Structure formats: C-alpha cells, structure tokens
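User: Good morning. I'm curious how fe (ii) ion would be positioned relative to this chain. Could you predict the structure with it bound?
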Amino acid sequence: MSSRARDDTLNVIPSAQNSSLEAVRVSEVLAALSFALDLTEGQPMGHSLRSCLIGMEIADRLGLPLHDRRDLYYALLLKDVGCSSNSARVFELFGGDERLTKHDLKRVDWANYFKAMRYMFSHTMPSAPWFQRARRIVSLARAGSAVATDLIERRCERGAAIVTQIGLGARVADGVRSLDEHWDGSGQPRGLMHAAIPLQARILCLAQTLEVFTALEGAAAALEVAEQRSGRWFDPTLVSACRGMQPALASWRDLGEAALRHEVAEREPGGAVLLAGPGTLDRIALGFAEVVDAKSPFTAQHSFRVTHYALEIATRIGFDERERSDLRRAALLHDIGKLSVPNAVLDKPGSLSNEEWEAVRLHPYYTLRILLHVRGFQQIAQVAASHHERLDGRGYFRGLRGEQVPLAAQVIAAADIFEALSSPRPYRPALPEDTALQIMERDRRVGICDACLDALGEVVRGETADDVEHPLPGDDGESGAMADDAERRAA
Ligand SMILES: [Fe+2]
Ligand SMILES: [Fe+2]
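Assistant: Good morning! Here's the predicted structure, ligand included:
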C-alpha cells in the first residue's frame, strides 16, 4: 500500500504470521467503528460492512490488482466517515429527523422530477403546519443544487481529511472525497465525469446503492436499479460486472453482526494486513472523536476537551502511563454512541420530551455496543460507556453505584460535566469556570469522585483557556449529568 512508507505506525506484516500475534488489525478496528457511521447515516447497523463485501466482490470480478483492492477495502469501510459534518445542516434545512432524511437521500434519483418532489414533501419539516412546509420547500427548490453541493462537499472534504489524518493515504482519501460523483457528471460536489472519477469512488457509489436497495427491496430490485442508472450514476463496466451477483447480495443481507464482521475480515486483500500500533489506534480514536464532535455545533471540541481534562486529572491522582493511554482512548470515544441521537434532540433549545430523553440516555449503551466489537478494547468500552454513571447509582445507562463505576470512568465523568457546563448549550450560554466548579461541588462524593473534583479544581485554576490544546487535551446538553441534566430537564 502506498501509505506504508510514510506511516511507521501502520505496521504491515505478512498475513501468514497473523495467527501468532495478538495485535489488532486496522480493518478490525475500522469495521467495528463503522457501525457508528451507519447510525449517523440512519442506515441499519452493518450497512458499511455489507457495502464493503459488495465493493470487494466487484473488485474481484474486475480483476483489480492488489494495491487497488487494498485501498478500496479501507475506502469502503470509511466511506461515511465525514457523515456527521452535515448532520446539523441537514436538520436545519429540512427539520425532522436528519437520519431519515439522510437515509432516503441515498435512494433518490434526482433526475426524476416526481421522485425528487416526493422526497422533498415527505422530509421537509414533517411535523410543521402545511404553509410553513410549503414555504421551506419553495426556498429549498430555489436554492437547488447549491444546497446539495454544500451538503455533500462538507461531508466529502471532512471524510477525506479524517482518512488522511488516520494515515491511510491519498488514494483512499480521494475515493471517500468522490463518493457522490456520478458517471455522467451529474454528481456532487465537483461534477466529475467518467474516468475523472477515481475508480474506487465509482465502486463505492455503486456498492452503497446496491446495499441500500437490497436491504429495502431485495437483491433483484437492487440490480435492476443499477441497470436503470447505468451510464448516468454508474460506470457501465461496473454494472456489467455485477450481473449474476443476486445470490451473493441476498446472502450478505441476511448475515448477523458476528458473521458479517468475519466475512469482511476474510475479504481483506491478501499478502499482508495492516496492524494497528499504539499511534494508529490513537489516530483512529482521534478521527472518530472528530466525527462525534462534528455532529452538533454545540459539541465542537467536546471530546478533545474532555480528553484533556481527564488526562490532567489522571496525572494528579496517580494514573501510570498505560492507564493514561487507555483513558485517552476511552475519553476520545466516550460519546461515540451519541451519533445515534438525532440533531432535533441534540440541538433542541428547550426541554426534552420523555421520548427524546430516552434517546439521550441510550447513547452510552451504543458506545458500549460499538466499542466492545474492537478486540482489545473491552476495558476501554466499559469505561467509556460508564461516563454518565454516578456514585449514588442515579446515573445512566446501567445505574452503577460506588466502586462499580470504574475509576477511569469517574475521571471522565468529572471532565465531561465540567466541559459541558463551561461550554455553550442550545438552552443556555457557557457558564464561567468558577460557576461550573461550584455547581459540581453539590455532587461531591454523592455523584462525583472526591479526588477527581479536587484534581479538576487544581487543573482549572492553574491554566488558561489556551492551555487546552488539540488534539489530545475535551455536557452535552444531555450529558454530564447531574447538574447539567437536571438543568436541561427542568428548562
Ligand atoms: Fe460527553
Ligand atoms: Fe455522553
């Protein structure tokens, strides 16, 4: 792979040696985290992995060389990594649940006027009075392709930037950047045509469309859509290569999570696999922290800042280097489950309904579910998923109590609450740091760890805002807890 020479932490070893090593494959980590991307896109969990199987099957049928298949493989796993960067904007434009809007966007053929209008009618401010809806639809129609270009450009550029930051190389990044380009030049954001669209991106676009239609309408219908859009959306050569793929599409649709991950691991192009060293794991955690923070304008930098405060607290209460390393990854990824929460809830200026509150309370559960699939991350998953637990058992999502809450989770909880209180939220401006600390005092020993709160006070009083540095130094409206939760619910 072209990125090999540049990246000393993306260790490459011959596949024959793998069984004797306990190292984690980069592909395993990305496959597990891709479930978070599916949640953000409103797709069923496994969409990215099934798209990966489809794309790799197309590559095999085309007889692509090894280096192309390897870049394609990683691009397929990360195709939606920029997805959260336009979530808030999609919600702002359309209203409603942006995950449903995004889900159906992958199916709409904009060349068909009636289908395009039907999409607009069903997704624009669905619960608003008809005149408000009509006004919004007219304004969206007037803005036309400029809106689509803006939305897709944000997503593609952000996705490409995260791929580059992880260290997977320019070709993988370019594939992700060009995911929504169409063969006839009608795609977004650059309107590339034919061979000007990277081959990987052409495969990504076809694979994800086949996956979405197979899930909803069956394999035969999906292949029919590919034929109908051949020469418009899709490279005709690729569509031809898909003929006869119906049984495979149908069987992949029915795979359970574990079997799906196994199939995807088996499809990793042979000869060598990428192993994730500590540096790579940190960069992947950092990349996915950015995905989480980009979901809402109110949480930009949240995960970074929580990580910074958590590490500072940990140093003061005596964590060793290994414990700090695990803490860093848990803190960066603690809110990854929040990608399951709609922006209508995250960005809501008022109090939450019971149903909305339930969606918020579930986000640590999704954090656990996603991170448990990363081999070697069991401890990190438990810590990250416990960041809303309280010592008195009144936290969520499991209601752990006292020593049941891992110390590292108590550290993250203190950092999380402080970061939330001292940052602006949709329902209030940022609180001064001293006020945030005073509010947290009410929960000393009841909800928040005594030593963590002392250490946090030392950190906050000893540094200026400029001391909080990217990338590893970071309530959410919901989060944190205690003080902030109570405030939000009563708003
Ligand atoms: Fe958080
Ligand atoms: Fe949280």
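Confidence is low (pLDDT under 50) at residues 1-21, 471-491. Strands lie at 10-14, 272-276.
Let me know if you'd like a different ligand tried.
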